[in-house]
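Deviations from the work plan: none for this task. Representative record:
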Amino acid sequence: MQAIQVEDLWKKFRIPHERRTTILENIAGALQILEGKRFTYEEFWALKGINFNVNHGEFIGIIGENGSGKSTLLKVIANILRPDKGRVKASGKIAPILELGVGFHPDLTVKENVLVYGSIMGLKNSEVKKRVSSMLEFSGLERFKDAKLKNLSSGMQMRLGFSVAIETNPDIFLIDEALAVGDMEFQQKCISKFKEFKTEKRTIVFVSHALNLVKEFCEKTLFISRGETVAFGNTEDTVSQYLRHIRGST
Amino acid sequence: MFQFQYSELVRNLTIKEFKLRYRNSILGFIWSLLNPLAMMIILTLVFSTLLRSGIENFPVFLLTALLAWRFFSISTSMSLSSIIGNAPLVTKIYFPRWLLVLSSNLANLIGSSLEFAAFLPLLVFLGMKITPLALFLPVILILEFILITGVSLILAALNVYYRDFNQIWEITLQIGFFLCPIIYRITLIPERYIVAYSLNPMTRVIESIRRILYYSTLPTLADFIIILVSGLVLLLLGYLVFRRLEPRFAEEI
């Protein structure tokens, strides 16, 4: 049984040469077309035919340069972005932990956010309330439970997001550079949490530039470059291929 | 369309919207009462004292319609931004996006019902008679809610792609205020326009609420049918527009 199946996945973004976000701009644009100027935009294919599978209980790494499509891939798996071609099948509850946050509203307090997030993840309010204290304890933010989220630092927001997401008991974690903004102490905490996940055989997809972490945890690794798969398989081999790739291009 | 697994989420989002609506001002709920109260006083001064409209008990005549209109105008203009206002959620995690529109409208249904309740003593003091007909008020508000939700789905989805939609909607609402029988009687409308005029579902909502609270009569069957049918048509239309635009919300936001 596979946790995630990604089949021939293509995703394109439109980059308009002049971005129109109002009706007035669109009317003005339409008038220009009448005068013979074309409305143009560039198509940017962020993902070009990605294929890979993740089995239940696997810890998978994704590596690649900035802008290679890693985050887009995670967002498509999380169903936040929709693919233009191909498909993604994921079985089970997914918790995406993307760059800076898991889906909190800046104007709500920590406690309110936890409730809303918990119900998005399918937990009953009563269940969330039971776990609130352990969430706050792991994040170390008990003192700030009535503070609005926007008043927390980015590091604190990430701590909270991570702590809350892991307590909602998802089947699949999608983690995107989550550790980058945390301090040393919190990174250590997360790493020991990762070890726990590994022994519990949870399914994790882990995007990171921290190659030592990828090597330590991931059984298999996907290396993508400019939206295309360069390698997928054994972590050691994939990472060294990535390193050769970087050296080759500089 | 509605799945039980999200009922708790709808409840939490509704509470969130309700809090956000009232918390950022010191007087909170009181503020939302001051606006119609001020409107009523000003318009009563203008229309019954200066212009001598000759409408009996003008404050009650006006306030009943004003509250019904406010429910529509505030709900639609707030849910207009319910997708972009929740960008931090929409770009980070998946859940059916229309729940955001629904919760925003539910929060306003509660808010407007509270407004009606809060003004009840004043209306009675001003000479309104409370009859068992008042039991129809919630029915009309629910029908208005269906209408509002249909309109809101269209507005919220379009506003993700066209950011000046809120300005356009604001002007539309201003025109709508005068196109509905809020500050005047429906008898003012010339004969040849009356059919088109009375097909406007908001006219029917306002007339129904006025019938119940001001004239102490039952809304007509035509009132019910026009509100319900246009509500369901708009809901279907809203659903179709929303479903079509929803997949690219996260990248356009």
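The radius of gyration of chain A is 20 Å.
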